[in-house]
Specification:
By secondary structure, the chain is α+β, with helices and mostly antiparallel strands. Helices cover 31% and strands 18% of the residues. The chain folds into two domains: 26-187, no CATH class; 189-259, no CATH class. The structure holds heme C (HEC) (2 copies). One heme C binds next to α4, β2, β3, β4 and β5.
C-alpha cells in the first residue's frame, strides 16, 4: 500500500459519518437553493400584510411577508415576520426572523417546519430551534393568509389570492412527527391530541380532505370559528356556510375542555 492510498483510506473513513448524515438531500437543502431574499425584495414576488390572526393570538400586531416557490413534488413557503411596533428591525424584510414550511408530495404530503436566524437566507443560513409549537396553528401545513391590511409596497393582492386558492384546494397535509410531538408535550397537557369530532367541522377536517383538528389547536380553532381569543368573538371563517347555535355551543364546550 502506498502512503497516498493509506491517507485516502483514512480520509474516507473520517468523512464517512459526515457524508452519511448529509444524505439523502433533505427538503431544507433544496429550499436553500432558492434565492428567497431576491423575492422578498421584489414587491411583485412577495406579499406583505398585517396579520389578522396573529395580532389576536400573540397580543400585538405583526407584519408578515410571504414568498412561495415550487420545484417538482415540493412546495416551499417562507415567512419573514416582525412586530408592527418594532422599528429597530426596519422596513427591509430581509433583516427579519425567517420561518419556512416545505411540503413534500412525494412523501405522503408531509410538511416540515424550520426557523432561521434573522439574516440573509443562503446556503449558510443558520437554522435555529423552533421557538413556538408550530403545530398549534398549522394543523394542515401552510395556512391561508388573512390580512387586516396590506403593508409596504404591496401593489396588489393577487399573490395572496393565488396562495389562498392553492391552500384551500390542497388535501390533507401532515405536519412532521417531530413538530406534532412538540405540541403533544408542550404545556404538559395529556389531552392535547384529542380530535375535534364535531360534524360541522370534521366533515372537511376528516384526515383526508384536511388534517384532523386537535385540542392543541384550540386558539386557532376559536379564531377560525369567530369565537376569538378567550371566546371574545370576531369574524367567523369556519365552517364556510356558518353553523347552528347547537353546534356553536358544542364547539364552545369542547374548547373549554368540557366535551
Ligand atoms: C399563533 C399561531 C401560529 C404559530 C404558533 C405559528 N404560525 Fe406560522 N402562520 C400563522 C398564520 C395565521 C399564518 C398565515 C399568515 C397570516 O394570516 O398571518 C402563518 C404563516 C406561516 C408561513 C407562511 C406560509 C403559510 O403558512 O401561509 C410560514 C412559513 C410559517 N407560518 C411558519 C411557521 C413556523 C416554522 C412556525 C413554528 C416555529 C409557525 N409558523 C408557528 C400562525 C402561526
Ligand atoms: C366545507 C369544508 C369545511 C368545513 C365544514 C370546515 N372547514 Fe375549516 N377549513 C376548510 C378549508 C378549505 C380551510 C383552508 C382554507 C382557509 O383557511 O380558509 C380550512 C381551514 C381551517 C383551519 C386552519 C387549519 C387548516 O386546515 O388549514 C381551522 C383551524 C379550521 N378550518 C377550523 C374549522 C372549524 C372549527 C370548523 C367547524 C366549526 C371548520 N373548520 C369547518 C374547510 C372547512
Amino acid at each position: 500500500m502506498t502512503p497516498t492510498f493509506i491517507w485516502r483510506a483514512i480520509a474516507i473513513l473520517v468523512a464517512a459519518p459526515f457524508s452519511m448524515r448529509a444524505a439523502p438531500p433533505s427538503v431544507v437543502e433544496w429550499a436553500r437553493t432558492i434565492d428567497v431574499d431576491a423575492k422578498m425584495a421584489e414587491p411583485n414576488e412577495r406579499v406583505c400584510f398585517e396579520s389578522m390572526e396573529s395580532s389576536g393570538s400573540v397580543g400585538h400586531s405583526v407584519i408578515n411577508c410571504v414568498v412561495r416557490a415550487a420545484g417538482g413534488a415540493r412546495t416551499a413557503w417562507w415567512l419573514r415576520q416582525r412586530k408592527k411596533s418594532d422599528q429597530n428591525e426596519g422596513d427591509d424584510p430581509r433583516r427579519w426572523p425567517l420561518f419556512l414550511i416545505v411540503v413534500d408530495r412525494s412523501a405522503d404530503n408531509v410538511a416540515s417546519f424550520y426557523q432561521f436566524a434573522a439574516a440573509p437566507f443562503d446556503s449558510n443560513a443558520k437554522e435555529v430551534p423552533l421557538e413556538v409549537p408550530c403545530f398549534n396553528c398549522h394543523a394542515n401545513g401552510p395556512r391561508a393568509l388573512r390580512a387586516s391590511k396590506l403593508w409596504g409596497e404591496t401593489p396588489r393582492s393577487e399573490i395572496l389570492d393565488a396562495i389562498n386558492l392553492e391552500i384551500a384546494a390542497d388535501s390533507a397535509i401532515t405536519p412532521a412527527t417531530s413538530v406534532q410531538n412538540r405540541a403533544r408535550f408542550f404545556g404538559n397537557e395529556p389531552a392535547r391530541m384529542t380530535p375535534l369530532r364535531l360534524k360541522a367541522c370534521s366533515n372537511c377536517h376528516d384526515g383526508k380532505n384536511r388534517a384532523i383538528l386537535r385540542f392543541a389547536q384550540r386558539d386557532t380553532i376559536a379564531f377560525m370559528a369567530g369565537l376569538g381569543p378567550a371566546h371574545s368573538g370576531g369574524t367567523a371563517f369556519m365552517p364556510p356556510g356558518g353553523m347552528s347555535s347547537q353546534d356553536r355551543q358544542a364547539l364552545l364546550d369542547w374548547l373549554d375542555g368540557t366535551w
